[in-house]
Structures are given as structure tokens and as C-alpha cells.
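Lab intake sheet, docking and co-folding queue.

SAMPLE TYPE: protein with bound small molecule
LIGAND NAME: zinc ion
LIGAND FORMAT: SMILES
REQUESTED OUTPUT: full 3D complex as C-alpha cells
PRIORITY: normal
SUBMITTED BY: R.K., bench team

The fields below were copied directly from the construct record.
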Amino acid sequence: MTLTPLDQHDPRLRQVCAVVPRTALRDRQQQLEIEALLDFVYGASVKTAGTGGRRDRSQPNTVGLSANQVGIMKQICVLDLSIGRKGYTDIHVLVNPRVVWTSKARTEKPEGCVNFETVWGVTRRPRTVRVRAMDRSGNELELKLTGWPAALAQHEIDHLNGHLFIDRLEDPTHAHHVPLDQYAQYRRAKAREWDQFVDVSADVSAA
Ligand SMILES: [Zn+2]
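RESULT FIELD (auto-filled):
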């Protein structure tokens, strides 16, 4: 199963995904679908297609993926919390994840999205969250995440409920336009100083 990201205007990005019953996780097809999501994240279906599909954990295509970003309309997402962050070494497949607590403290961070190739922007989100979910075996788990991992989890859980990061921008008429060949510059730059903009306000939905 090779997955491709939906176009940013695809209506499936605005739908609420279906809850996955615990019993469905015993199904082999369901587990294969989760494997396909991991293949997408770690490049097996993109960078090494036709070569046996080996995953490369050091070079993920994305640090997070929600199933509906690739057209699977179920409450499943993948978070790679290991990238450059001590203390977060696990990759989590979260089934039916939900934010059960948020801190009053907030942080602002630049975010992008697999479905928006050249659009970035600074979002303001709770700094710390508690997330409850099942793992892919159906065990209940709770994560307390702070800072970057918390923003990632909120971004992905938003997806599963039909929300996009552009809905969280302070000024969606001035989202950051980041051409693919300028991505490295953008990551080095102070987001506040970026001077290329794109108007995504027509695509914003009230949360
Ligand atoms: Zn996204």
C-alpha cells in the first residue's frame, strides 16, 4: 500500500475521522494500514520505492502524520518524538488520541504540514498537554508533552478532527510562503523576520 498526501484543498482534510474500535486493532488489515503510515513517515514508500521498502529512521519525511492526510479516514496518527529531543525517544502510533488537559501557558512556533508544501506560519498553542489514546495493540496510554512535542501532538490531533494549522494562525492573510529550496533558510531564520507571504484566509475554517 503506497500512500500519497492529499492536496491542501481536499475536503477529506476537513472531516472528522472515525473512531477505531479496540477490536479492530486485532485485524491484520488494520495493522497493515498502520504499517503503511509508518512507511510513509520513514520513507519506505517514497524514497526507496522499488528497493524493498526499507525505512530510514534518521531521515523521516515528516515527524507526524494523521491518517486522513493520506486519505485514511480513521482516528490514527503517528508522532515521532525522537527528532533532536532528549527524553523523547519513542515513536508513538496513537489511536483515538484526544487532548485531555492543556496548560494555560502558551508558546508560539512555526508550523508546516505535509499537505501544504510551501505554506508555513506561527501558531500559538498551549505549551503543555496531556494526551490520552490507545497504542496500536489497544492499550490505553497517556502522554504528557511539553514544547515542540506538544505542538506536534496538537497539530496531528487537530487533523483527525478536521482542523488545520492555518486555522490557528494569527493572520492567515500573511502565512509564510517558503519555496522548497528555501526551507533550510526558513528553519534558520527568525520566523518573525520572514518576508515572503501567502494569503490562505479563504481556506481557513473556524475551529
Ligand atoms: Zn499537518
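REVIEWER NOTE: The two ends are 32 Å apart (CA to CA).
SIGN-OFF: pending second check by T.M.
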